[in-house]
């Protein structure tokens, strides 16, 4: 799913009105009606007090449409105008008149924080104060109103975005943003729903289709894409009946040091379980027996040294190479990696200490083959790009790194983001069960195993990150968040693959005449 910028959303709105021969007021009616339908389906007329807070722009206009429909359907509604500016949008004014026509009374005007409305914990707040048009800091009394919302503990449903949250910046003051329980966003999710510093402003979100011109949506390239099943299905390569292991490539995993052999084992298991034909692990001698006995499917080549990698020397021709998991940053390991980079021509995935070595010796970045995949967690990323001021600065710096060295950078975390040049691929799968040692090592193996099978590096990264998160999503239902460990990611890979082709279950329809007991 594409993640459109606010400029593109405005453009799409205008183009849709023109192409479909409708006014912007009609588009707003559609948008507001969708929100009303969503609420009506869930509330079924329940008389819970609903407080609809409307700004004076088009987000407020949407709120007025929702309030009008709620009122005409007999809900218990109070409508307020948060009067933060003298300028009103045309469609706000039209809907302001319409709600007056319906209720025979104007909504309650709020001009300051002197008398904030009473709201009970069990009430519902509809937040239509600011949408994507927010362009400067909010005034103090509106911040007090947001604090009032928090103090009531009532459920907040935000329209389009939690009010006060800009679509392209991290808020300087947390209290200047509404904390939404749920956000109903028009046509596209916003990038801020996926960044660690801004995702917290809404517990959940959902996109509502308001009929924006399909051609515009299809043909407009976006800076960011949200990667779910629909996006990865076209990447998947089916297997031919007469294929053999030679068709699925040979991956080499270089890593490990005394006490960290498990990292190589996990990565190697990731390689084969994702479907590569063969895997060879290159590690210090101390890893030979443990790996051979715990994972018989792998082949092993040992370094001359017992405890660390000192010379990368192998007599196989791999299709993809992973370097770094558990490798340590001993001077001899760094030299070995340096020497390896001078002659290596194979696709590379670099993780963990491989990234730490690159951070120490930035000149090595120039020796990476084009489209090398780097998979840093936040601390490792900081080594590469330096400290960032906020999540948007982090993305900007990561894009610069990706462009300078023509590499693919995977910013790991909740909603892992793969950065390739100026493009962002935001992964939709995964959950906090993955916050446990070794899950990153498995991911490295998965991406390397996909490249070995013939997926191009970018496709392998996007697909690998998706399957990794999906594995955890499917298994966490059985294992719970706490007891899930890195080996479980590997166990869930088959389920994640099978899930790609699962058809959604048809809705249960009651037989005509059948009555509920
Ligand atoms: N047909 C359509 O277009 C559709 C649009 N849709 C809806 O429109 C929403 C965007 O509406 P919007 O552009 O009117 O902006 P909105 O967020 O309501 O802000 C209102 C105005 O406030 C002002 N302002 C900004 N910051 C401020 C501040 N800190 N303190 C005080 N004032 C401030 C600023 O105006 P300014 O003063 O800069 O002229 C701004 O324009 C979008 O989120 C969606 O809900 C849907 O209906 C689908 C169809
Ligand atoms: N809260 C979370 N939600 C989703 N995924 C997470 C979360 N925390 C961690 N992960 C994922 O788990 C993996 C952890 O990788 P990493 O920190 O390198 O672990 P290790 O070095 O122990 O292998 C990454 O793929 C990351 O995206
Ligand atoms: K809002």
From TrEMBL:
UniProt cross-references to InterPro entries, sorted A to Z: Carbohydrate_kinase_pred_CS, CARKD, Nnr, Ribokinase-like, YjeF_N_dom, YjeF_N_dom_sf
Cofactor: Mg(2+); K(+)
EC number: 4.2.1.136, 5.1.99.6
Catalytic activity: (6S)-NADPHX + ADP = AMP + phosphate + NADPH + H(+); (6S)-NADHX + ADP = AMP + phosphate + NADH + H(+); (6R)-NADPHX = (6S)-NADPHX; (6R)-NADHX = (6S)-NADHX
CDD domains: YXKO-related
Gene3D superfamilies according to UniProt: 3.40.1190.20, YjeF N-terminal domain
GO biological process terms held by the UniProt record: metabolite repair; nicotinamide nucleotide metabolic process
Cofactor note: Binds 1 potassium ion per subunit.
GO molecular function list: ADP-dependent NAD(P)H-hydrate dehydratase activity; ATP binding; kinase activity; metal ion binding; NAD(P)HX epimerase activity
Key words, A-Z: ATP-binding, Isomerase, Kinase, Lyase, Metal-binding, Multifunctional enzyme, NAD, NADP, Nucleotide-binding, Potassium, Transferase
UniProt binding sites for (6S)-NADPHX: 58-62, 131-137, 160, 263, 326, 377, 441
Domain YjeF N-terminal: 9-218
Residues that coordinate or bind AMP: 412-416, 440
Domain of life assignment: Bacteria
Ranges of residues in domain YjeF C-terminal: 228-500
Positions of K(+) binding: 59, 127, 163
Family: In the C-terminal section; belongs to the NnrD/CARKD family. Belongs to the NnrD/CARKD family.
The protein's role, per its UniProt record: Bifunctional enzyme that catalyzes the epimerization of the S- and R-forms of NAD(P)HX and the dehydration of the S-form of NAD(P)HX at the expense of ADP, which is converted to AMP. This allows the repair of both epimers of NAD(P)HX, a damaged form of NAD(P)H that is a result of enzymatic or heat-dependent hydration.
Quaternary structure and partners: Homotetramer.
Cited PANTHER family: ATP-DEPENDENT (S)-NAD(P)H-HYDRATE DEHYDRATASE, ATP-DEPENDENT (S)-NAD(P)H-HYDRATE DEHYDRATASE FAMILY MEMBER
Official protein name in the record: Bifunctional NAD(P)H-hydrate repair enzyme
Phylogenetic placement of the source organism: Bacteria, Pseudomonadati, Bacteroidota, Flavobacteriia, Flavobacteriales
Gene this chain is encoded by: nnrE
């Amino acid at each position: 799913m594409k993640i459109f910028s606010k400029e593109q959303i405005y453009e799409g709105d205008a183009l849709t009105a023109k192409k479909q021969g409708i006014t912007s007021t009609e588009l707003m009616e559609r948008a507001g009606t969708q929100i009303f339908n969503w609420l009506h389906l869930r509330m079924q007329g329940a008389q819970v007090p609903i407080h609809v807070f409307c700004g004076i722009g088009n987000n407020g206009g949407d709120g007025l449409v929702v309030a009008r429909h709620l009122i005409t359907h007999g809900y218990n509604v109070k409508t307020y105008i948060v009067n933060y500016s003298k300028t009103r949008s045309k469609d706000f004014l039209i809907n302001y008149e319409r709600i007056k026509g319906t209720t025979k009374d104007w909504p309650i005007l709020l001009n300051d924080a002197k008398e904030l409305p009473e709201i009970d914990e069990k009430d519902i707040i509809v937040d239509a104060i600011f949408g994507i048009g927010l362009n400067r800091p909010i005034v103090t009394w509106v911040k007090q109103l947001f604090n009032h919302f928090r103090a009531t503990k009532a459920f907040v449903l935000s329209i389009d975005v939690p009010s006060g949250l800009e679509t392209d910046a991290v808020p300087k003051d947390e209290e200047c943003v509404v904390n939404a329980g749920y956000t109903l966003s028009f046509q596209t999710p916003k990038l801020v729903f996926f960044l660690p510093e801004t995702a917290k402003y809404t517990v959940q979100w959902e996109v509502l289709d308001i009929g924006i011109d399909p051609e515009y949506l299809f043909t407009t390239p976006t800076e960011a894409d949200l990667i779910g099943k629909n996006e990865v299905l076209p990447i998947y390569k089916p297997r031919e009946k007469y294929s053999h292991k030679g068709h699925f490539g040979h991956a080499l995993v270089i890593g490990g040091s005394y006490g960290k052999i498990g990292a190589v084992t996990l990565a190697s298991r990731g390689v084969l379980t994702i479907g590569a034909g063969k895997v060879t692990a290159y590690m210090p001698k101390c890893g030979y027996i443990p790996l051979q006995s715990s994972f018989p499917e792998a082949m092993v080549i040992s370094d001359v040294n017992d405890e660390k990698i000192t010379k990368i020397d192998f007599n196989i021709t791999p299709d993809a190479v992973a370097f770094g998991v558990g490798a340590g940053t001993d001077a001899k390991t760094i030299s070995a990696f340096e020497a390896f980079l001078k002659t290596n021509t194979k696709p590379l995935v670099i993780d963990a200490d491989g990234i730490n070595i690159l951070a120490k010796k930035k000149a090595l970045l120039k020796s990476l083959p084009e489209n090398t995949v780097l998979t840093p967690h936040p601390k490792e990323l900081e080594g590469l790009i330096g400290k960032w001021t906020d999540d948007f600065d982090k993305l900007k710096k990561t894009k610069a790194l990706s462009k300078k060295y023509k590499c693919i950078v995977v910013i790991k975390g909740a909603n892992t983001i793969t950065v390739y040049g100026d493009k962002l691929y935001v992964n939709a799968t995964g959950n906090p069960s993955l916050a446990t040692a070794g899950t990153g090592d498995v991911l490295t193996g998965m991406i390397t195993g996909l490249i070995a099978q013939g997926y191009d590096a970018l496709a392998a990264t996007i697909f690998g990150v998706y399957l990794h998160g999906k594995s955890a999503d499917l298994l966490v239902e059985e294992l719970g968040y706490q007891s899930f460990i890195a080996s479980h990611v590997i166990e869930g890979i088959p389920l994640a693959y099978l899930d790609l082709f699962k058809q959604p279950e048809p809705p249960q329809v009651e037989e005509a005449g059948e009555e509920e007991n």
